[in-house]
Write a structure and sequence with these properties.
Elements (H helix, E strand, L loop, with lengths): L1 H11 L2 E5 L5 H10 L3 E3 L4 H10 L2 E5 L5 H16 L4 E4 L7 H13 L4 E5 H9 L20 H15 L2 E5 L3 E4 L4 E4 L12 H15 L4 H26 L3 H14 L2 H7 L2 E3 L1
Parallel strand pairs: 1-2, 1-3, 3-4, 4-5, 5-6
Antiparallel strand pairs: 6-7, 7-8, 8-9
Helix pairs in contact: 1-8, 1-9, 1-11, 2-8, 2-10, 3-4, 8-9, 9-10
Bound molecules: adenosine-5'-triphosphate, 2-(4-methyl-thiazol-5-yl)-ethanol and magnesium ion.
The site of magnesium ion has 6 residues, from α8.
């Protein structure tokens, strides 16, 4: 079932529009290709509306915000929504500045997101109006632990109810939930927090998986999160064999997504569904 979701991406090869940051844009484009989809990274407001129509899915990432990109996000988001395309929000560093927090609020007001994917600090900020963060990375004090797992699931389910979106919280433990069902995912490796853009790449994957599986939203987001975690584990093994660093690991990560089969995804998945 989860494997079928990846196979559908390869079969249907959806076009994914990414309005994203300049730090990790190239990695997002390559991981989109690696999973079998096709990326476009254009962020000009002049073509945003047309791109929103042309694409099969849209990923909006707040990593390096400025007024022109925000205009493009709003235009593309409204256009994509009008054509029923799935739209993902990655609220990068939402708590780091007033501009980011207010932009996240505006995007949430104006665009009906299909999924919202962020680290725990970002999701806490945009779900509760809290105003703190450690830049674009999760604050260690927010980490999801076995002790606060239930509370975190409740927060994510409540946020899903208020937005209508599937909520994905990434970290050592990943939570993917709608209002009723929750995947608790334990794939991944700590080295992933040392590669900038693992979260950004995951959001691009999420848009691709959703676009190819529009009727299985929760499963599609969970399959994307498991793909990223599992390929992170495989990439770490290669990194350790080679004694390379985080840049080598980043390349292996993209390669592992390229090579992953549906069957391997199912075999390697470590999750509990509640
Ligand atoms: N300590 C960890 N153990 C296992 N997997 C992890 C760990 N930290 C992050 N990951 C994995 O890394 C990926 C990205 O999650 P993370 O929460 O670091 O995103 P992020 O903060 O948005 O990243 P970025 O903004 O750099 O793109 C997810 O697949 C997650 O499961
Ligand atoms: C480091 C960084 N700064 C803005 S976006 C980005 C990539 C990770 O989110
Ligand atoms: Mg991020």
């Amino acid at each position: 079932m989860l494997g079928e979701i990846l196979e559908n991406v390869r079969e249907r090869s959806p076009l994914i529009q990414n309005i994203t940051n300049y730090v990790t844009a190239n990695d997002c484009a390559n991981i989109t290709l690696a999973c079998g989809a096709s990326p476009t990274m254009s962020d000009g407001e002049e073509e945003a509306e047309e791109m929103g129509r042309l694409c099969d899915g849209l990923n909006i990432n707040m990593g390096t915000l400025h007024p022109r990109s925000v205009k493009a996000m709003l235009l593309a988001g409204k256009s994509a929504a009008g054509f029923g395309r799935p739209i993902v929000l990655d609220p990068v560093g939402a708590g780091a500045s007033t501009y980011r927090r207010e932009t996240a609020e505006e995007l949430l007001r104006e665009i009906p997101f299909t999924a919202i994917r962020g680290n725990i600090s970002e999701i806490k900020t945009i779900s509760g109006g809290r105003n703190s963060s450690k830049g674009v990375d999760a604050d260690a004090a927010d980490a999801v632990t076995e002790e606060n797992l239930e509370k975190t699931i409740a927060l994510a389910r409540d946020f899903s109810g208020r937005t209508g979106a599937v909520i994905a919280i990434s970290g050592a433990v990943d939570i993917v939930t709608d209002t009723k069902n929750t995947y608790i995912i334990r794939n991944g490796h700590p080295v992933m927090a040392k590669i900038t853009g693992c979260g950004c790449m995951l959001s691009s994957l999420t848009a691709a998986y959703l676009a190819a599986n529009p009727d299985r939203k929760l499963e599609a987001v969970a399959a994307a999160v498991i793909t990223m975690g599992l390929c992170g584990e495989k990439a770490y093994e290669k990194m350790a064999e080679e004694n390379s660093g985080n840049a080598g690991c980043r390349n292996h990560l993209i390669d592992e997504v390229y090579k992953l089969t549906g069957r391997e995804l199912e075999r390697g998945a470590k999750y509990e569904l509640r």
